[in-house]
Each structure stands twice: as C-alpha cells, then as structure tokens.
C-alpha cells in the first residue's frame, strides 16, 4: 500500500524523505516515552499495592472518609 501511495504522489524528493525521517524519529521517541511512563506507572502501582496490603480494613475505611 505504501508503495502505491508513493507512486501516486510521483515518488519521493529530498524534502519528503527528510520529513519522513523526522517523523519516524519522533514516533520512536514517543514509543520510548510510553515505555518509560508505563514502567513508572507499574512501579507506582506496585508500591501502592504493597502499601495498601499492609493496612487493616479499619485503616482503609478511615482513608476513604477524608
């Protein structure tokens, strides 16, 4: 499909190739950021889970009434 689109547009030129490279780099950066945020979220969730598992039910109820 991509080849068909490139052919439809008349091929690539230097500007289009540059823009594609910039966009691919940005997409890679965003994928890395997603992975980092996901790992951070997992760590925070694990820490919260450990914190909550150490509480007694009465302490959980006290926290929800605030």
Structure commentary:
The protein is mostly helical. It has one domain (2-64). It contains three helices and no strands. It has helices spanning 2-8, 14-53, 57-64. The radius of gyration is 24 Å and the shape is rod-shaped. It starts with a helix and ends with a helix. The mean pLDDT is 82.
Summary?
With 66 residues, the protein is mainly alpha-helical.
Walk me through the topology.
Blueprint: H1 2-8, H2 14-53, H3 57-64
Work out the count of structural domains. 1
Nearest-integer average pLDDT: 82
What form results from the Cα inertia axes? rod-shaped
DSSP E strands, number? 0
What is the percentage of strand-forming residues? under 5%
Which H/E pattern describes the elements?
HHH
Work out the helicity level: over 70%
In terms of per-residue confidence, which ranges show pLDDT below 50 for 5 or more consecutive residues? none
Number of contiguous helices: 3
Distance between the termini: 57 Å
Radius of gyration: 24 Å
């Amino acid at each position: 499909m991509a080849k068909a689109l490139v052919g439809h547009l008349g091929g690539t030129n230097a500007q289009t190739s540059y823009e594609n490279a910039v966009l691919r780099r940005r997409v890679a950066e965003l994928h890395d950021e997603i992975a980092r945020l996901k790992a951070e979220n997992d760590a925070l969730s694990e820490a919260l889970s450990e914190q909550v598992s150490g509480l007694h039910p009465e302490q959980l109820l006290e926290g929800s009434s605030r």
